[in-house]
Design brief:
single chain; alpha+beta; 4-stranded antiparallel sheet; about 35% helix; N_methyl_site
């Protein structure tokens, strides 16, 4: 009479381990894709916030709307007069300079620092404000993580906004509004 052992054979254990490893690799890849998508979504939310910030500033200073027009890429030196708080007495032109300085500082990450390194803002951002009467178009571009088929491959969004940075990783967020 033959005695058969009870339990798992080595082949069964190996097959189970292969199935487990394939499943773990799939979960790890799913986690990586989810983190990248979350970061891309966060950057798009930031771009929307920055655009809405400058539009709100423009609404408060609508007397010189055309002065906000331009192409911007990061922070610059602070203007000579800081227009902060209700006690600050600033002209419309000084307010425009202060608004654009604050806005550029934010989207380039200068408002958030770790030591001397900018840690906030978008990755290699460029922005454009186009004003035609009371019609305003604000465009924000930045570098995303992954390549996309609908990325900013040419530097022109409209006749005025000509961006220097292009490529398959560029993202675009654009708002058209009317300021009355």
């Amino acid at each position: 009479m033959k005695k058969y052992g009870k339990g798992f054979s080595l082949i069964e254990v190996m097959v189970a381990l292969v199935i487990l490893v394939v499943g773990l690799i799939g979960i790890f890849n799913l986690h990586t894709v989810a983190k990248q998508s979350s970061f891309e979504s966060f950057q798009q939310t930031q771009a929307a916030y920055y655009i809405n910030d400058i539009v709100s500033r423009m609404r408060l200073n609508k007397g010189v709307l055309i002065s906000y027009r331009g192409i911007f890429n990061g922070g610059t030196a602070a203007p000579t007069k800081a227009c902060v708080g209700a006690a600050a007495q600033c002209t419309h032109t000084e307010t425009v300079a202060w608004d654009l300085y604050q806005w550029r500082l934010m989207f380039s990450g200068g408002a958030e620092k770790s030591g001397t390194t900018n840690v906030g803002g978008l990755d290699t951002p460029e922005a454009c404000i186009y004003v035609n009467g009371s019609d305003v178009q604000v465009v924000m571009t930045w570098r995303g993580i992954r390549e996309t088929s609908d990325a900013t491959k040419s530097g022109a969004i409209n006749a005025f906004c000509e961006f220097s940075k292009t490529g398959n990783n560029r993202r675009v967020f654009l708002i058209n509004t009317i300021i009355i």
